[in-house]
Amino acid sequence: MGKRQNNTAWLLVLPVLILVAFSAVIPLMTVVNYAFNDTFGNNQFFWNGWGWFEEMVRSERLHAALGRQVLFTGCILIIEVPLGIVVALNMPKKGFWASVCLVLMALPLLIPFNVVGTIWQIFCRVDIGLLGRATAALGIDYNYTNDPFDAWVTLIVMDVWHWTSLVALLCYAGLRSIPEAYYQAARIDQANRWDVFRYIELPKLSGVLLIAVLLRFIDSFMIYTEPFVVTGGGPGNSTTFLSIDLVKMAIGQFDLGPAAAFSLMYFLIILLISWVFYTVMITIDPQEGR
Amino acid sequence: MAQITLSNLAHSYGSNGLHEEDFALKAMNHVWQDGGSYALLGPSGCGKTTLLNIISGLVTPSQGRVLFDDIDVTHVPTEKRNIAQVFQFPVVYDTLTVRENLAFPLKNRGLTASAIDARVVLIAEMIGLMATLDTQARGLTPDAKQKISLGRGLVRESVNAILFDEPLTVIDPLLKWELRAQLKALHRQFGHTMIYVTHDQTEALTFAEQVVMLHEGRVVQMGTPEALFETPEHTFVGHFIGSPGMNLLDAEIADNHALIAGYSVPLGARYATLAGRTQIGIRPEYIEFSADKGLPVQIQRIDDVGHRRIVRAEAAGCAIAVSLAEGTALDATMTHVQFVPEKINVYADDWRVQGKVV
Questions:
Q1: Chain B CA closest to residue A187
Q2: pLDDT per residue over B116-143, tens digit each?
Q3: What is the pLDDT of residues B148-204, one digit of tens each?
Q4: Do A289 and B138 touch (CB under 8 A)?
Q5: What is the per-residue pLDDT across B284-308, written as a single tens digit (0 to 9) for each?
Q6: Which residue in chain B has the smallest CA separation from A178?
């Protein structure tokens, strides 16, 4: 029966639309605008087409930053994921110590990023830092301000300290959700500890591990504050990761066009990899078949 | 395969269990025959899972001993008891194939590859898993997964006992019948000692040769399904088994008659004078309607359950249920009920009293 469609309800969506426009769409479009134009100030823009993109794709500076970024993210994933699993496997299952562990593990996650940077910046200083002084006293040649290798080690250790808890807590939750019957069945089948891990725990953890890897990937790929506070991207450019380089380019040098093109590509890379993760997660889940 | 002996066994989850009420499982002595099939039947919280866990070694009893044949295994851990267990929900190794799942317990026990293969194929054929032998277990249906759990128990030839902890809970009703029939066939073929925990009387009565009826941590009766039906040793058994359960009526027992609210009901045996609360128990199946003989009755409701009709009525002030076979006539002239004397059980303080058959 000719029921008239009432479209006034769409008006209720309007506030959200405006909010999202101001918080995301308009800023993003500004960046897009910068990426395709050149300006010499005075708010005068000249069309530059794909020029900045072509320049950035060929830029050795960007290649180097991307390389460092991939290396950094790779390193912390390789360390944090297995370490997080090991920690989760060894945490007490219940009682007083389980709570103590959970609180202690959650602490690093609650510290603001720049505070984490400051803590490690001071902790590792050769003149007043506990670690710096200790290594000096032991005769180890360590100085993160002038040795690229030491700077890398410092940043990786800091990130591991900061974020392994996240992986461990996710895995801990995943492990707790495995019914006791699985362990009983394994005992009856005389499975050894490694088999229990490989055939029961790891398959049951695959879901949370994917989330953990995804979160750690996105976070570490966008890391800015901590290395900025600790090393400022140095020594030289050795710890200049993508975000740091981007900020240097956009605000330091005021090269808005290239920086905008750079940030759009950066955004697309993260989007692409997250999409791949998401697809993998979705295709694994239905196979559970419960 | 082994004979299982429970010697003075009791368990309390509390600290010491000074009082009898603290015991989840009260002291019991039982011998379960090698190759028998037993069902532990009872409502939730009656202690049947505790008893199963004591046999499997997951719980150490606070008193008494468990023996497999003549070996004391009370303190032997689960993995050394050589038992198999099938849990409430399917427990399979998700990433392994069906074949690898079945082979897993044998591989861990160091059998040769050819021996493992032969045994796995034999078991897979028996339980109907041949078609999916090389598919990954995680993609299968719950009943196929439960078959794998079962298969992992059967695959070990020398297993002492196979324990089932309400294994058909997650299975579709239709497949329940099939799996139950298959279990029975497997039991006949292999002769493993099987212990089956359930709260479902149909499952227990169709599966087991011997049903162990638990009530508040006590074994109130152990016997064949027929014995549980015909001569329940405790009013609880009478009430729990059967659908509907046994009718229990307060009565005075005088020799070979029971007096219910002034009416005399003939019994099938002679009884001595009984102390305490005396009752008679009669199955709904053994009550007949008549025009003028027996207890006067008022019919309240008739439920048609397909092959039978269940009549809810009031006889001499007590609510009773009568189960009528198909085709039995029932009309307004039938104002009385009669009990089949030989089928009446007499209870004193809830326990059955054996009368002297004339």
A1: B79
A2: 988 899 888 888 888 888 888 888 888 8
A3: 888 888 888 888 888 888 888 877 888 788 888 888 888 888 888 888 898 888 888
A4: yes
A5: 989 888 888 888 888 888 888 888 8
A6: B91
Sole residue written with tokens 């993609």: B139
User: Quick check: A75 pLDDT over 50?
Assistant: yes
Query: Are the CB atoms for A92 and A98 separated by under 8 Å?
Result: yes
pLDDT tens for residues A128-177? 889 888 988 888 888 888 888 989 999 999 999 999 999 999 999 999 99
pLDDT band at A1 (very low <50, low <70, confident <90, very high): low
Is B138 in contact with A287 (Cβ distance < 8 A)? yes
The per-residue DSSP string of A133-172 comes to: HHHHHTT----TTT-HHHHHHHHHHHHHHHHHHHHHHHHH
Of the partner residues A188, A204, A288, the one whose CB lies closest to the CB of residue B84? A188
Quote the tokens at residue B333: 């002239």
Task: Return the domain boundaries, chain B.
Answer: 4-240, 247-357
The minimum CA-CA distance between B20 and chain A, rounded to whole Å, is 30
The sign of the CA dihedral B119, B123, B129, B130 is positive
Of A184, A192, A195, the CB nearest to B85: A184
Q: Which residues of A touch B93 (CB under 8 A)?
A: 199-200, 203
**Given an 8 Å threshold on Cβ–Cβ distance, is A184 in contact with B56?**
yes
Domain spanning A19-288: which superfamily?
MetI-like (1.10.3720.10)
Chain B CB contacts of A197 below 8 Å: none
Regarding the domain with residue range B4-240, which homologous superfamily does it belong to in the CATH classification?
Answer: P-loop containing nucleotide triphosphate hydrolases (3.40.50.300)
- Answer yes or no: do A288 and B138 touch at CB < 8 A: yes
Is this prediction's ipTM beyond 0.90? no
**Mutation to test the B interface, candidates A177, A190, A288, most B Cβ within 10 Å:** A190
Identify the H or E element spanning A26. Answer: helix A26-36
What DSSP designation does A46 have?
E
